[in-house]
Automatic annotation (TrEMBL):
Pfam families: Alpha-amylase (PF00128). Gene3D superfamilies: Glycosidases, Maltooligosyl trehalose synthase, domain 4. Residues 1-672 form the Glycosyl hydrolase family 13 catalytic domain. This is Malto-oligosyltrehalose synthase. NCBIfam families: trehalose_TreY (TIGR02401). It comes from Thioclava sediminum.
Length: 747
């Protein structure tokens, strides 16, 4: 394999449209087309991760015939196909045939055990726009013989259990269903199913059950056997009850020759769990290392001082994360908290006559979740690994500092580490699934939008309080247990990154020109006509990151304000997704519109050096991505220019510019040349060593294998390009005349 090219299907891109891009991708030099989920999703899905039928290729994309045609055309050009699998969840939707049957027949359904549902109670469905009693009183629900017998209301319907329609009275009919209708505002309080993070419309699958695994894996496994799919990416591996067993079964099903990558977020120095049968992660940690390496240390220190002085910001990010968890868990993840308390109580009564009461358990559980340091542990059956035991014990010790007594914490730790009965197992599995949701919602989706200092570091898999890396640190990462494998992916943009790669490097440029950015911010504060400096600091970086050079596009201000509205709701300080304060949002966003209008009327002089440095950093980012261990993963349009913010901005329809700018052409040319080099020296990049060095302001990264060396070299000071090259690559196996590949900065 040489490199993958990620293509987001839907939003106007189906298999037929994807087929037209194949000659371009083959000429670019990638080896695999990597597709977002191809399986039938809910009607109108814009991303495909809300899979409704994992046993069918989505007719909206062209169905199996369309996919077969795309794969065969790709292979004729020397391209393989990588598929995105979603084993953790499917759509809690009537588009889901398994779910329709489970709604109608309840625990008697052939698919009842496919879903992570507690069938000791009714399946809670918060589908109604208003409270059920109010809608019943107004006669807004009615019985119908459609759909094989159903109750319907404006905008929705649900299937009825067989024979219950004969009861006649709609209130009586509803009491005899396997589900309980509620209005959408009550979803956060109590649920009877496991969901994806706090998305109630995505229901957890029990893929740890061999029958469910077989049903969900049947189609992609067949596509592999038939030679139509050649690599697999696994979405949200940490959501599974037992990731290691899933990967073992998957490997047994598809064979050893098919690369399998997992979406696994490694925090700090966390390593991939031992024994996982995978070729590596999707590469967030590699992207983190690149950004940290390209951040200028002295400039960052000055930027930090400016930020503190102008906004009153402080760098206690760890405390901010814990405060975010303390808010997010009782609000967005209250249902999960209640489930864990119930499971813990059930486990503790097995061998204790006087277990802690529910409120004591709630305090202890909340403290455990607040202080848990990473996405999850991986304890299946005791004994836990020394690493997992240490994580649990350290979490208990930290949490105990905040509580009047630690007995309940120690009891919960005992269930996690040593419990062998079935109730302990159920609690352990659920706890380990919930911790990942806590980290994602509190850190990536809350604290990242509160900590405004340097948004280039606020990225999936990264830590805003550790934004710097040098050659020595990179070498330490290479040799660590977390260090990138040559078979793993290396990404700088994805459909889930908070900012696209070139936007991130635009923002990274402020560490090289801190005084310039401070001046840009000061002017923005005047334009904004408001005193919320933290918001303006965030908005100024965001607008810089997507500013169209040389002239702003017609939708620039709208893109900015929509992102900032999302940022305000994610941050959760003046507004929330569940109960948005539109008036407060609009008042805040008005300042961003003022800044954008001022820039459009007269682009600030400070933009020019930041844009130029951002372009140079983007090309260095590309060079490092191609040289690091791992398989480069190019997000759609990433070989040209990606000036995008978080979704949905980064999931806009794929299109290549008809007339590329100087930067787009430079990046495209560099991508082609570097992919060609990787193909010519595949032995070096597939199994070679990596070593970084820095001396006299020159950074080098050398890959070695079989006596051959390929070395990337660039100056740290991006203003000093006296030899005319931004970076160069030397290949010891090349002829003297071709030994130096020089890459000039864009004009």
């Amino acid at each position: 394999m040489i490199a993958t090219y990620r293509l987001q299907l839907r939003n106007g891109i189906d298999f037929a449209a994807a087929k037209t891009f194949l000659p371009y991708l083959a000429d670019l030099g990638v080896s695999h087309l990597y597709l977002s989920p191809i399986f039938t999703a809910t009607e109108g899905s814009t991303h495909g991760y809300d899979v409704a039928n994992p046993q069918e290729i989505d007719p909206a994309l062209g169905g199996e015939d369309g996919f077969r045609g795309l794969s065969e055309a790709a292979q004729a050009l020397g391209l393989g196909i990588a598929l995105d699998l979603v084993p953790n969840h499917t759509a809690l939707s009537l588009d889901n045939p398994w779910m329709r049957d489970a709604m109608r027949h309840g625990p008697d359904s052939a698919y009842a055990d496919y879903f992570a549902i507690d069938w000791s109670q009714k399946l809670i469905l918060p589908f109604l726009p208003e409270p059920l009693d109010d809608m019943l009183a107004r006669g807004e629900l009615r019985l119908t013989e459609d759909h094989g017998g159903a109750v319907e209301w404006e905008g929705g319907w649900l299937p009825l259990a067989p024979g219950t329609a004969a009861l006649g009275d709609i209130a009586a009919v509803l009491t005899h269903q396997h589900w309980q209708l509620r209005d959408w505002t009550r979803e956060r309080g109590a649920l009877s199913h496991r969901r994806f993070f706090n998305v109630t419309g995505l229901i957890g699958m029990r893929i740890e059950d061999p029958a469910v695994f077989a049903a969900m894996t049947e189609l992609p496994a067949r596509l592999v056997r038939e030679g139509l799919a050649h690599a697999l990416r696994i979405d949200h591996i940490d959501g599974l009850a037992d990731p290691a067993t899933y990967l073992e079964r998957l490997r047994q099903t598809v064979g050893d020759a098919v690369p399998v990558w997992v979406e696994k977020i490694l925090t700090d120095d966390e390593a991939m769990p031992a024994g996982w049968q995978t070729d590596g992660t999707t590469g967030y940690e590699a992207g983190r290392q690149i950004c940290c390496l390209l951040t200028e240390p002295e400039g960052f220190a000055r930027l930090d001082a400016f930020w503190r002085d102008r906004t009153g910001g402080c760098d206690d990010y760890e405390t901010m994360c814990r405060e975010a968890r303390a808010q997010v868990i009782p609000e967005d993840l209250a249902a999960e908290l209640h489930q864990l308390i119930d499971l813990a109580q059930a486990a503790l009564v097995v061998d204790r006559l006087d277990p802690p009461d529910a409120e004591t358990l709630r305090e202890a559980m909340l403290a455990l979740l607040i202080f848990f340091p990473r996405y999850r542990s991986y304890i299946t059956t005791p004994p836990a690994t020394p690493e997992d035991r240490a994580i649990i014990e350290e979490t208990v010790d930290a949490a105990a500092e905040t509580l009047p007594q630690r007995e309940a914490l120690d009891l919960l730790a005992g269930l996690l580490l040593d419990g062998t009965d079935k109730p302990s197992l159920k609690f352990r599995i659920r706890f380990q699934q919930v911790t990942g949701a806590v980290v994602a919602k509190a850190q990536e989706d809350t604290a990242f939008f509160r900590h405004t200092r340097y948004l280039a570091a606020n990225e999936v898999g990264a830590e805003p309080d550790t934004p710097l890396l040098d050659a020595q640190g990179l070498n330490a990462w290479f040799s660590s247990a977390q260090g990138q494998r040559d078979t793993a992916l290396t990404l700088t943009s994805s459909h889930d990154t908070k900012r696209a790669e070139d936007t991130r490097m635009r923002i990274a440029a402020i560490s090289h020109h801190p005084e310039t950015f401070a001046a840009l911010f000061d002017t923005a504060m005047q334009d904004a006509a408001r005193s919320d400096a933290g918001f303006v600091w965030y908005a100024t970086q965001s607008l810089l990151g997507i500013w169209d050079d040389p002239a702003p596009g017609p939708d620039l201000c709208e893109r900015l304000t929509e992102h900032l509205r999302k940022a305000l709701r994610e941050g959760g300080e003046i507004t929330r997704w569940s109960f948005p304060d539109i008036e407060a949002e609009d008042a805040t966003l008005d300042s961003a519109r003022r800044i954008c209008a001022a820039w459009e009327a007269q682009p600030p002089a400070e933009l020019a050096p930041l844009i130029a440095t951002g372009q140079r950093l983007s090309l260095l980012q590309l060079a490092l991505k191609m040289m690091l261990p791992g398989m480069p993963d190019i997000y759609q349009r990433g070989e040209r220019a990606l000036y995008e913010l978080t979704d949905p901005d980064n999931r806009r329809p794929f299109a290549l510019p008809e007339t590329p700018t100087s930067f787009e052409q430079a990046k495209s040319d560099a991508t082609r040349r570097l992919l060609k080099l990787r193909r010519q020296a595949e032995d070096v990049f597939r199994a070679g060593t990596a070593e970084a060095a820095e001396r006299d302001g020159i950074f080098t990264l050398t890959r070695r294998a079989g006596g051959r060396e390929i070395t990337l070299r660039f100056r740290r000071d991006l203003r000093d390009l006296s030899d005319g090259a931004l970076f160069e690559i030397r290949d010891s196996a090349a002829e003297d005349t071709a030994a130096r590949l020089a890459f000039p900065p864009p004009a």
